[in-house]
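Handout, section B. The chain below has 187 residues.
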Amino acid sequence: MTTGWETGREDPRAEGPGAGAEVGGGPPAALPRPVERLIGVLGRSRFEAALAGSRDPVMIRSFGIMLGAEGDLAAGEHWLRRAMALGDERAATALGMLLQMAGRDDPAVPDLLRPAADAGDPQALLALAVHHLLRGEREEGARRMVAAAGAGHPQAVALLARSAGADRAPGAGEAPGPEDSPGSPRS
């Protein structure tokens, strides 16, 4: 279920345009201001104690993402797994991305990312593409990268454009042709 809080649409908890909005189901750009305020007022330990009894997977996922972004990977993973246990599918994608960004070669990463990627989530598609490429699985990585670009992920589009440009660039010892000059359609 998508709430206004997750999308940044007319919701009393979202402040300002797109506050707490998620792009393509990925991690929020920023936590909604009320969450930040609560943590500021209560302190992290009291906020965690209050959240321990919560059954709000979106709040729990947001807290896990925040902790992971701050570098507390163990706590971020704990809260994201808790959100997953409450049925939050987006928490699995967030956890897969957190593990990947932390540099952990966890065999669970593709399983965490695949459901959202298979559903067309641009963030998950890009993260899964990177996973495969880092493991030397070029064909699957390229397939997922193309799918991420097709789903509108701007980084995937840029990476594919850069890759296509590199494929067309003159090789070593090869003179550039007129199509390689500044102002040409390829440059």
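Note. The two ends are 45 Å apart (CA to CA). Compare this with the example in section A.
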